[in-house]
Amino acid sequence: MGNDGVHYQNLALARPTTQPSILIETAFLTDKGNLRLLMSAAGRERFAQAIALGIERFYRDAALGRAGR
To answer: Which residues form the MurNAc-LAA domain (predicted)?
Structure first.
């Protein structure tokens, strides 16, 4: 089994930018439980709702001057 820790690479999509950006890795396709979630409508909905909530919180916090906390 490989290391599931943080990996640093010079990827174009991960370089510093002046625009808000996000890279989302929802699950490991090699994990049967994760794959089951991705293959089900309910699982995809859970991922979508969690992502939407995170984006909503980011913009709400930015509007309130709490960005980066």
So the answer is: 3-56
Q: At what angle do helices 32-39 and 41-63 cross, to 10 degrees?
A: 90
Q: What is the pLDDT of residues 4-19, one digit of tens each?
A: 667 677 777 767 778 8
Amino acid identity for residue 38 in this structure: L
Domain that holds residue 41: 24-69
Q: Answer yes or no: is 4 within a domain.
A: no
**CA quadruple 34, 40, 43, 47: dihedral sign:** positive
Contacts with 36 (C-beta within 8 Å, 6 or more apart), sequence order: 43
For the entire predicted model, the pTM comes to 0.68
**Tokens 């808000």 sit on residue:** 20
